[in-house]
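hey can u check if this looks right to u? its 1003 residues, i copy pasted from the old doc so theres a chance i mangled smth
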Amino acid sequence: MDIKLSQEDSSQVAPVVTPTYALQGASSHLMALLDVQKEAVSLGSDLTSVLKLAIEHAQRLTRANGVAVVSGEELYCEAATGTLAAQAGHTLTFLNSQSVDSDVPVRYADVLGDSHFDQTACPLGATRSLLIVPPPSKETLFGLLAVAEPANAFTAEDEFTLQFLVGLINAAQQQDNAVKAKQQALAERDVALSAQQDSEDRLRRIAGAAQEGIWMVDAHCIISYVNLRMAEMLGYSLEEITTHSIFDFIHQASRAEAERAFAQGQQDIPQQLDLCYRRKDGSDLWAIVTINPTRDRAGAFSGVLGMVNDITERKQAEESLEAQAAMLREQAQLIDLAHDAIIIRDMKGTIIFWNHGAETIYGWQREEALGHNASALLQSQMDVPPEEFKTQLTATGHWEGELTRSTRDGQHIVVSSRWALQCDGQNQPLSMIEISNDITSHKRAEARQAAMTRGLHEVLAIADELINCPEVDCLTRRAVELVRERLGVERCGMVLVAEDGEHLLGTYGTDMQGHTTDERANRFPRDNARFSYLETLPEGQRWVLLKDSPQVYWDETKMVRVGRGWQVATPIRSKQGAVGVFFNDAAITGAPLDQVQQELIAVYCSLLGNIIQDKRSEAQVRLLINGARCILWHASVRENESGYLDWKFQMPDAEAANRFLPLAKLPGQLYEEAWGEARLAEDVERMNLNAATALENGKTGYTHEFRIRRADGDVRWLFEDVHIEPLLPKQWSMVGVCTDISELKRAENKLREFAAQLEWSNRELQEFSYVASHDLQEPLRKIQAFGDRLKTKHGDALNDEARDYLDRMQNAARRMQVLINDLLAFSRVTTKTVPFTPIDLRALIQDVLTDLEVRVEQSGGRVEVGELPTIEADPLQMRMLFQNLISNALKFQRAGVAPQVSIQGELLPARETALLSADEEGGVCRIIIEDNGIGFEEKYTERIFTVFQRLHSREEYEGTGIGLAICRKIIERHGGQITAQSVPGQGTKFIMMLPALQPKPTS
């Protein structure tokens, strides 16, 4: 309570402000106050009773004759007693000012005549003294005001008493306030609970009707509420969802994200995220989930509220769009990596896309090309007028054709281009895409091919004309003239080898107009410098360019030099070899070399060589045909538009052919026609197929055998060797020679019969050896058994001579047993076989060495095995082979020398060996087994591989002489070869050649 006094009259007596009274020695008064306190405490929060108690005891325990409980700055009288009783329920108005600026008790010694008091309004009567005790703090409400009649009546004790009672009043007031506040809070809580219940009911009704899914979970993520929409979205009933963890319905892929969102929700951070739920049927439900935390009335985190909107269709659309975008990105990368030039320009022609193919073809980098006008940059020229191009592109949306363009380095190229319009949704053109590939080389090749085709027709026409020349001398001069006239060659000539081989024939267009001035071919010694070009020209090279050759011409009486330039020397060859050299140059115009023209000259020279050779040997060929048992034919073959072959078949000397092989002919029928009908029908289809296959594969020839029926009905076998000479595309010249091989066929049949008989004899011999060996086993076992029994039971009764006879008999039986076993092994090489399988030779030899381990240790020797390949073979026979060879190497050793055996192998190409049975694909395995033993003289090489053949006595080295024979038989059964190299006293080297792959069985 703030009470302030007006300063209107400062001359008046100032109020006495006394400090809190310190009670000394007034124990009885203090005890009275404590009794009042106990009574006040018993009243509890009954403020009215406490007020009444306070004013009564205030008047009793002080000098006051009136006491009032006042509150507020207006000094409202809550309760009063004594002289102030009438003021209860009223505001005290006798003070001129309603405020006293003090928080401590204020005493007025005499109020009469004091300007601070309204004397007329003062109800105090004879009251002179006044004591005001304010509330102890701003949080308290009530104070006490006491009056007394005499002036200066109140003491410090009175002041303390009133302060004490004010404390009791305000304590009761605070307690009353607390009770009222609690009551009010309880009432408000009841109202709030009712409102909350109403709100929750409304929310549940709203949530139940909402189109979004709604769920609530507690602090442990257990679902406490879910609306019907959410249950429908998941495909469960409400009962199947409630009390389950929310994570039971979230897809594993979204679980981690959902857990993070739930954790952040505990921190009052709302979340919105995409989550994937798993429906009851196993399908995915994608949704946007808005997560908000919920709290209880105490403000503690109680769970999470989730609002769920189904976006499955949108998600699927997004995934589809993303897949499409990925595909478009991949397509863009592929477009950029395409070898074709791909350019996109807007409708004004400005380049907006330029791929790597465009950089490669045109030379400008992407950064340099973008933003430029394409036509200006590339200087494009179309093969159609621009108006026609625009009209077609606008009308159809696409255009295709060829363009001539300039590259960055200034070269002109030709491209094959395809254009297309790109339009928007309203079908308005947005841009033009162009895909082009460089066909400059193709166009040049087409031009060269066209020129070559025209030239080849001319070459064939020249060849036809030269064939009619009566002699080589005339042909030589005419060959030069026709090339200059028909092929446009400036100057040319040629040098031929004369028939005597010692001289040359030559002519040349020697004047400056290129005319051939020689009346006949000139004859001069073979050491002429021009012919040396042919001798130094690499085999197979079609022509050679002489870049610094002297250029001369004939000026009636002498040769005149006109400088140096290029000259080409082209060999003239026939099937039999070199015929001469053809020369041409450009001494007249100095023009550069024409590659197409030079290739035509090379073809021409190839035909020319055969024509010259044919002219020279025509008589000899005719004699050969007449005297030999063969038929010569020639055919021009062309592939027609339907893909079939058209044949023009003729025989140069049908009469000689008919004498050699007379055929049945109808009157007027040509021999060539009868030839076609006389061939056996079952052979004709195969012959036609052979010819078509050879032509299709570009072969230079083929051979086959066929049968033909003579006029007397006898069927003859002919061998046909056909040579193919390409002329033009899909046009060939063929020459065939047919030889009668009927006698050879008969001999082959006899050979087959002999081979079959030999095979049968060998089989019988093998079976005999096998059976005989088995039949010998039984009596031999009896000899051994009775000999052992005789020695055991009666050995003591035998004299020395008898025992010697018995020992000899037993030794002979043992040798016989070894011999029979070896003979059985020898026969089993062909009678007991297994299919060939891939065998790792190194692993197999290691197994053999394991079996021979004791023998190697006893001999003190060493066996080194190098790298060995894998081959197809009979594993048991390979084991027998290496066991015999290694055993021999350990057995045939020099005295005092430890045996050293080396085994090495390698694969060789079949063509580098003489092994005919080897397949080119698999190659040949060469195996070498070398030792340091006793060796032998190589003249016995063949002998050591023969059955029962030995080079040493049994006393020197044990054995039967069959081991190496078995080795050879195994090798030969595998299609291989075995031989040996040796020097006496220096060891032996066995060399084996085996096919790596065995022939596949044929049906």
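The first helix runs from residue 27 to 43.
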